[in-house]
Amino acid sequence: MARRPVRRDGIRSGRMSEPVPRLTRAALARAGEPLEAAPARIVHLGVGAFHRAHQAWYTSRAPDAADWGIAAFTARTDAVARRLAPQDGVYTLVERGPEADRFEHIGSIVEVHPATRTDRLRELVAAPSTAVATLTITEAGYHLRPDGVLDLADVEIAHDVEALRGGRFDALLTPLARLLLGLADRRTDGVEPIAIVSCDNLPDNGARLAAALAVLASETGRTGALQAASFVNTSVDRITPRTTEADLEAIAEATGWRDEAPAVTEPFADWTLSGEFPSGHPAWDAAGARFVGDIRAHTQRKLLVLNGGHLVLAFEGLRRGLATVADAIADRDCRRALERFWDEAARTVGSPDTDAYRAALEERFANRRIEHPLAQIAVDTVTKLSLRVLPVIRAERAAGRDAAGSTAVVAAWAACRTAGLLPGERSDRGEFDRALDTLLEGADPRDGEAIVAAVTPPG
Ligand SMILES: NC(=O)c1ccc[n+]([C@@H]2O[C@H](COP(=O)([O-])OP(=O)(O)OC[C@H]3O[C@@H](n4cnc5c(N)ncnc54)[C@H](O)[C@@H]3O)[C@@H](O)[C@H]2O)c1
Ligand SMILES: O=P(O)(O)OC[C@@H](O)[C@@H](O)[C@H](O)[C@H](O)CO
């Protein structure tokens, strides 16, 4: 980063008298910081903050970055495209440590499109030059039932099944349907398979995506499409809260560039991948990622200990009127609830390195400069509880223990939900009962009574 005033150490350099220019590839080149656009060989769906802090960052750090550009699509609204496209995909990544910020311009995203550009997505997924498609579309974006199968009764999926059957491709609503179209074209053209890399916080994320696409394909007469893809399971880790307007101002002040689409993240990053890449991939391993044979234990540890732990802090913290993860872990009662859950989650994971992971996580959660709102975590809560807490209840009870720490998370969820503290989730009795029924559908029937008891006030 050459433009003045630039401070990589997080010390702000004072207000500038000159107007702050907009970050673009051309403006960077003029300022002596050229970031060449690589050919687009990766397609990404869901260009949110996490993609910019994780996969796009790893790609920018790979030694062969000059060969691997990303064509990024939003997954739902066009908000990020409106901010990032005028910057030619270039943005600032702020690595926010406990003491200071580090600023870096990332140039690996070379095309930015709104989700509705199905035509371009289709063309890119089918193109022989495209080797990889990555996704960060949130857990809700997979439209799975509590048993993990694609929910054909879901309104958006039902809509897209009809649209695919009727050839109304411009009307598609879901990333899954758009991706399927591209794969069908790739298959028709006989192109080498593409690797599809789910980077969402789901266990067996690649396998679940493959199964969901298989259902969609069979419902719409495109069963051959899946032969054009290999599905990769991943575990992804880097705490990346939503960017705020205050972040934009601080970045302009610190770097001298106006950036409408930065991402703010913690220094820690992990990316573990398992699967085949028939058409190749960037040297992400040289940038710190790990390719492994069996990913299950790794994924389970991350989802239960980190994401399950986040849920504990979110529900316990929101009940107490707290705002962020750092606030909650500093609260004695929240901390106690977290430790009780972690003791049980560690037994469920059963791997010896969980203690070290947990100790490191305490520091990551306590980083006060990362303002991770509890309200951002506490969304889509039934799905998250099913995947991150119910497995702990199951394992504890199967071992003859009372699962008090993990059932307490369900009790805290119920308290938040009925008190109207969960954003976007209705608190009336009927809605709560429906949510509880859905949660129970995803639970082992042997745990039903314990879960119901946890959410039922005594007396
Ligand atoms: N932020 C993190 O700390 C983090 C860390 C690890 C993994 N992840 C994974 O990445 C996902 C995205 O995180 P983010 O911080 O980028 O979120 P974000 O809100 O910034 O972006 C999410 C993207 O998903 C889209 N989306 C949201 N709901 C959708 C739905 N129902 N259907 C289709 N698309 C939908 C949004 O439009 C957006 O493009 C998370 O849900 C999680 O699975 C995030
Ligand atoms: O992103 P979600 O919605 O799956 O869960 C919220 C957070 O727990 C999550 O985003 C973590 O910050 C992340 O998984 C850290 O790697």
From TrEMBL:
> A Pfam family for this UniProt protein?
Mannitol_dh
UniProt keyword list: Oxidoreductase
Which residue range or ranges hold the Mannitol dehydrogenase C-terminal domain?
Answer: 294-415
Tell me which residues make up the Mannitol dehydrogenase N-terminal domain: 41-285
SUPFAM superfamilies tied to this protein: 6-phosphogluconate dehydrogenase C-terminal domain-like (SSF48179), NAD(P)-binding Rossmann-fold domains (SSF51735)
**Entry-linked InterPro entries:** 6-PGluconate_DH-like_C_sf, 6PGD_dom2, Mannitol_DH, Mannitol_DH/Oxidoreductase, Mannitol_DH_C, Mannitol_DH_N, NAD(P)-bd_dom_sf
Which reactions is this enzyme annotated as catalysing? D-mannitol 1-phosphate + NAD(+) = beta-D-fructose 6-phosphate + NADH + H(+)
User: Which residue ranges traverse the bilayer?
Assistant: none
Q: Which GO terms describe its molecular function?
A: mannitol-1-phosphate 5-dehydrogenase activity
- This chain belongs to which protein, by name? Mannitol dehydrogenase family protein
